[in-house]
Amino acid sequence: MENPRMVFLTPTVIKGDASGSEVVAHELAHSWTGNLITNKNNEHFWLNEVKEQNAEKHEGGSWPLLERRIVEAVQGKDIASLDIGIGWKWLVKDMERFKDNMEFTKLKTCQAGVDPDDVYSVVPYEKGFQFLLRIERQIGRPAFDDFLKKYIGTFKFQSIDTDVFLHFLKAYVPGIENEIDLKLWTEGTGIPPDAMEPVSNVYSKIVSLANEFKLGRIPREDEVADWKGQEWELYLENLPKSVEASQVTALDALYHLSESKNYVVKVAFLQLAISARCTDYYGVVEKILKEVGRILYLRPLYTALVQCAGEEEDKTFARRVFSKACDCYHPIAQAVIEATLAKNV
């Protein structure tokens, strides 16, 4: 969590492969957006978060754009593009999550009478990032960078809302509203048609390998030799929802994903194991649910357990573990998991 001049990081960021560096970049970016300039209220949350990006599925953020710029400078364009690709996948997931309440797929939302924790998602981060990327594509990176510097210089030490941002944008880039539908981007639902799904050689190769898994092919060791957390995360996120238990165990036997020090990778793999009813991994699942308190890891595992079609044993297991572990969770995490269990059990 970022604070002016002080950032607190969870031990789960230390992964042993430098893949947690994007979290550091994210929190550094908050020094400009989120701390130096902040959103007026939670209905304009995207102004805080869009310019930083990702940070482990957006557990507190700022402008993803700034974060990915740092990642690009330090780790290269391919890794930055990979990060954008992962963000795109999560954006699509949250669009599906809110399909019955599309209000919360907007950037500028109406949250009267709404608990912000109930509607927290990657939408402010990733749709907001796509909005800024659309502006950058329209005017070019050099001009966009000049705009960004002027924006920060103009509004430092202030809290602003979406209308203030748009007014400044239109004043700085005359006629931009004729090229980009600003109202659609900020007040419209869903993903605008001029958003751009990321394309990179690394991204395309990983998605292709994930598609081949459906045909029973596991990547060769030479194909994944350079993979770190982000690559494995994207691969696992693109695997089919329904796989055979034998495929899951074969994948783990080769690459030991259930033992990964990267919790994003480990949890993504365990979700796959739960969906395949690989009960041999439930001991690892229980250990994580009792030792790690981050909603980022708790919610997907509990959700996977209670959504197993017709598997009452998994639901009972989820309730039992929660009853033992809940006192160690933050009250917000407790409420989120209680709601997840109530909805599905």
Quickly describe the structure:
Pfam families: Leuk-A4-hydro_C (PF09127), Peptidase_M1 (PF01433). This protein is mainly alpha-helical.
- How far apart, in Å, are the first and last alpha carbons? 32 Å
Overall average residue pLDDT: 87
Number of strands: 4
How many helices? The count is: 18
Helical percent range?
Answer: 55-70%
- Strand order of the biggest β-sheet: 1-2
Write the H/E string, N to C: EEHEHHHHHHEHHHHHHHHHHH
Protein name: Peptidase M1 leukotriene A4 hydrolase/aminopeptidase C-terminal domain-containing protein
InterPro entries: ARM-type_fold, M1_LTA-4_hydro/amino_C_sf, M1_LTA4H, Peptidase_M1_C, Peptidase_M1_dom, Peptidase_M4/M1_CTD_sf
GO biological process, one term: proteolysis
Active site: 27, 125
Describe it:
This protein is mainly α and 345 residues long. The chain has 18 helices and four strands. A hairpin with a 2-residue loop joins strand 1 and strand 2. GO terms for molecular function: metallopeptidase activity; zinc ion binding.
